[in-house]
Specification:
This is Proline--tRNA ligase. It comes from Desulfuribacillus stibiiarsenatis. By secondary structure, the chain is of the alpha+beta class. The chain is about 25% helix and about 30% strand. The strands form eight sheets. Strands 3, 7, 8, 9, 10, 11, 12, 21 and 24 form a nine-stranded mixed β-sheet that branches. Strands 16-14-15-17-20 form a five-stranded mixed β-sheet. β18 (about 355-360) and β19 (about 365-370) form a beta hairpin. The two termini are about 20 Å apart.
Length: about 575
């Protein structure tokens, strides 16, 4: 492609609303433009990269014997009502009505659609297993779209669904997708981890793994062990049960703590560690009000709490709700003396505490030397907290480490959650009806593009890995008005095209400095510069990744570049 005719509106200045590297560079390199918040147009370079990533995904899906289809982004509300997610999914679901006042959604995911399709088309065990997938635009009404295409309201996703006769078959289908994901993200050049995760709004009855591209700007915290290789999302990482402290139980004492409302303030006032204080928090789990106790230096893990209570939604009570329930504002709440109808659950760490500090349910007062079982009762102890940096690994006790990650893929064992709700059944070999056993597998294609840019860039611009680069070679004559330079550059360009190489030819009249800045910004792996040495029979080959360069004889350019492009790492 000749650059003069290619729409690459590069920017010298960083857009004011761009917060992270990928957003800044994708805007500056002319890959995308924002239409409205969270909605983007892909320009030619960005679209080429997007299609390269799609091609890798498609090849690996087909290699795993998944079959590609395409369904509509518009889904009838009836399917979501059948599955129970019409109300449960939340405000991110983009809903609308047609002219006949019928409810529809713009699909954020397609479990219902694929399940209903298989319900109607598969009636015998002889037609299973089947895995089908699509690459399609999805929609989620994000409250706060951010980081460019990393968290957008419209995005490209590959979603696949497997249908098996039993859990053993699901295990095989899941493993095939798990392996395909590893191959996919390796080919995309990503540094990633596959970690244990929670099923979230999609849910399911079995295991689930997230594929996380490591990045400082990632919104997810990855907990991992340097010894045994354990890795999990912080929402999923389990805590080892803490042994009971061995010390004498002191007498419960009421103490005055004027205006000491926060854990930090209270610990400083009493000259104690935050971990010796028990926080009393009030939650609403669906329509039930729950008291949660946790150590002062810990945070409640809402996902663990929701799973423990088998709730659809959990949220902390607001101050006015607490005041209406207990007659006081938070700040001095404690588990002793609460109404008998309030269920109290606590983290395992609380069970192990002795002589702790708790709120007295009286303004400006706390108790010290409070002990569970003696001074207050707990209905159930469970793992309710976020694991902390340096806590013991749940597999081998080694102190865990933290990383940040961008979720680029997620695989789920759904079991019969959706097939039961939508009555997706088949006849087994005995003629008896059985529920299909399902798996679900998603890859954020557009998000993967942004993750690649986050990991493959420097202060000058993008550095594309070879498999996803929009072009492989960038031919730049320094002065297109110089007949010799232009002729040599054009011959190299045409020769490479004839060999099937993807080439961008910078035939613009711009100054050399501007051309080189743009070349660094858009990040094509190999660059051929045709300049002053052309009269001596030489051009320059420069590697975008390393910045290294060397002279090549003009007659050797094509053969050398073909050899370089056969190398896996440029």
């Amino acid at each position: 492609m000749k650059q003069q005719k290619l729409l690459i509106p590069t920017l010298r200045e960083v857009p004011s609303d761009a917060e992270v590297t990928s957003h800044k560079l994708m805007m500056r390199a002319g890959l995308i433009r924002q239409l409205v918040s969270g909605v983007y147009t892909y320009l030619p370079l960005g679209f080429k990269v997007l299609k390269k990533v799609e091609a890798i995904v498609r090849e690996e899906m087909n290699r795993s014997e998944a079959q590609e289809i395409l369904t509509s982004a518009i889904q009838p509300a009836e399917l979501w009502q059948e599955s129970g997610r019409w109300d449960a999914y939340g405000p991110e679901l983009m809903r609308f009505k047609d002219r006949h006042d019928r409810d529809f959604v713009l699909g954020p995911t397609h479990e219902e659609v694929f399940t209903s399709l298989m319900r109607d088309e598969i009636n015998s065990y002889k037609k299973l297993p089947v895995t089908i997938y699509q690459i399609q635009t999805k929609y989620r009404d994000e409250r706060r779209p951010r980081f460019g295409v990393i968290r957008a309201r419209e995005f490209i996703m590959k979603d696949a669904y497997s249908f098996d006769v039993d859990t053993a078959g699901l295990d095989e289908s899941y493993q095939a997708m798990y392996d395909a994901y590893h191959r996919t993200f390796k080919r995309c050049g990503l540094n990633y981890r596959a970690i244990e995760a929670d099923g979230g709004a999609i849910g399911g009855e079995g295991g689930t793994h997230e594929f996380m591209a490591l990045s400082e700007i990632g919104e997810d915290t990855i907990v991992h062990c340097p010894t045994c290789g354990f890795a999990a999302n912080i929402e999923k990482a389990e805590n080892i049960k803490v042994p009971k402290q061995q010390q004498n139980l002191e007498e419960l004492t009421l103490i005055e703590t004027p205006n000491q409302k926060s854990i930090k303030e209270l610990a400083s006032f009493l000259q104690v560690e935050e971990k010796t204080i028990i926080k009393t928090l009030l939650y609403k789990a669906d329509e039930q009000q729950i008291v949660v106790l946790i150590a002062g230096d810990d945070e409640v893990n809402d996902i663990k709490l929701k799973n423990l209570l088998d709730a659809t939604n959990v949220s902390m009570l607001q101050d006015d709700e607490i005041e209406a329930l207990l007659g006081q504002k938070p700040g001095f709440l404690g588990p002793k003396g609460l109404p008998a109808n309030l269920r109290i659950i606590a983290d395992y760490k609380v069970e192990a505490m002795n002589n702790a500090v708790i709120g007295a349910n009286k303004k400006d007062y706390h108790y010290k030397n409070a002990n569970p079982g003696r001074d207050f009762n707990v209905e159930q102890f469970a793992d309710l907290r976020n694991i902390q940096l340096g806590d013991p690994c749940p597999k081998c006790n080694t102190p865990v480490l933290f990383d940040r990650g961008i979720e680029v893929g997620h695989v789920f064992k759904l079991g019969t959650k959706y097939s039961k709700a939508l009555r997706a059944k088949f006849l087994d070999e005995n003629g008896k009806e059985q529920l299909m056993v399902m798996g679900c597998y998603g890859i954020g294609v557009s998000r993967t593009v942004a993750a690649i840019v986050e990991q493959h860039s420097d202060e000058n611009g993008i550095i594309w890995p070879k498999e996803v680069a929009p072009f492989h070679v960038h031919v730049i004559p320094i002065n297109v008005k110089n007949e010799k330079q232009y002729e040599v550059a054009l011959n190299i360009y045409n020769d490479l095209l004839a060999k099937g190489v993807e080439v961008l030819f910078d035939d613009r009249l711009d100054r050399a400095g501007s051309k080189f800045k743009d070349a660094d910004l858009i990040g094509i792996p190999l660059r051929i510069v045709v300049g002053g040495k052309v009269d001596e029979g030489f051009v320059e080959l420069k590697y975008r990744k390393t910045g290294e360069s060397r002279d090549l004889e003009i007659t050797q350019v094509t053969s050398v570049l073909l050899e370089e492009l056969n190398q896996l790492d440029l």
